[in-house]
Structures are given as structure tokens and as C-alpha cells.
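#struct-help
A.M.: can someone run this one for me? Single chain, 238 residues.
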Amino acid sequence: MTLLRGDALSEAFDRGSAAYDRLVAASPGYHAHLRRSARRLGLADGGAGLRVLDLGCGTGASTEALIAAAPLARVTGVDASAGMLERAAAKPRLTHVEFVHAPAEALADRLAPGSFDAVFAGYLLRNVQDADAVLGLVRRLLVPSGRLAVHEYTLGGSPVDRVVWNAVCSTIIRPAGRLTGDAWLYRHLQESVNTFDTAPEFAGRLREAGFQGVRVLPLPGWQTGITHTFVGRTAQEA
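D.P.: on it. C-alpha cells below:
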């Protein structure tokens, strides 16, 4: 299968946006894991005075997780799918969030360097055309000592992790996608994880992109060894 990229992926998410929240709500731990990863940003004082970017915010599940972790932060949500953003903007708890319709790669022309104190990226990096370029952009958007948390499907490297992932996709995720008419999107989900970095490889990618203090943190339940939180910081000013 050729993975969906760019406009084709955005259009697939547009079509799948109506059923997306129902499907992810049926995944054990989905929202709890996002909240755990958001807390791992370690934003003090409820995020008071901080600017936080939710990159690839989708229907706003990750945005809600950020607000739970840092209710006083000023949050901006960005996504390439207009359909997903429409769902996010309609949620009562997110009426004060600024939403921007743009692919991650286009933000260099829209946001100034040092615009954010922290960036959260949930289920994004394996879906972009050039993950290294996006990480470079994220680093430029952050202030010195700015914080990054990436919440992503990244297999741990054990053959068992890959077996579990593909079994769950074959028996639960892809059949659910077919029922909603979004078979291509959820087939893409399975294969994008199979072909993306393992957790150690992605941690190395973050270090190569200039992030310091990179740590790989597991998540509990069936997603242990499948989904991880990656945290890191930009360098301090000289």
C-alpha cells in the first residue's frame, strides 16, 4: 500500500472526521494516555503565562488533554484537516483555543521563531512527508529551553510489539474503519506505524534534530511497547 500523504491524507481525515471521536473513544486508554503525555511536558503553575502549540490537534482530543494539564496556558491548535478542525472548534471546552488550518510544514511562513514555550505533537510525525523538516521547524518555533512532548505510535523494537499491533489492527481497528466507510484511513494507520521509526530510532531522530535531554516514556495497558511519549528540550541561550 502507498501511504497517504499531504492533501490525500488531509482529505481522508476530512471524510473520517464525523466518526473519528467515536472510534477513538472505543480504544482503551486513548484519552488517558493523551493526558498522561500532556502532563509529561511538566508545565508549572497550570501553564500560567505560557504559550503552547498543539501540532496536529485533529478533533481536539489532544487539545483537551493539554488544557487539563495546563489550564492557564494559551493554547493554539494546528491541523491540516478542515473537517477535523471543525469538530475541534465546536467543542465547548475549546472555545477559547485559537485554531489554525495549515499543514505543519507551512507554519514557517505563518509563525515567528520563538512563538511558543512548549509544543505537543500527538500522532503527527509519522504522517508528515518530512519528519526531520517538521522537527527542525518545531525547534525554531520554541523559545530557548522550550519543551517538546511527542505522543506517537512507535513500536518498541520487540517482534512481540509488531505482532500485537498488527493483530489489533486486523481484528479491531480496520474492521471498525470499514464500518464507517474509512477503510483507507485505517489501513494507512496500520502501515504508517509498521514503516515508521521504532521508539529508539525516533529518540535518535529527536537528538539529531537538536533536542536535548530526550527521554522515551512508556504508556500502560495494551499500548505498552506500541505507543510512547518522547520528551525533550531546546538548547539554552548561550
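A.M.: thanks! Residues 125 and 131 are 6 Å apart (CA to CA).
D.P.: also worth noting: The chain has eight helices and seven strands.
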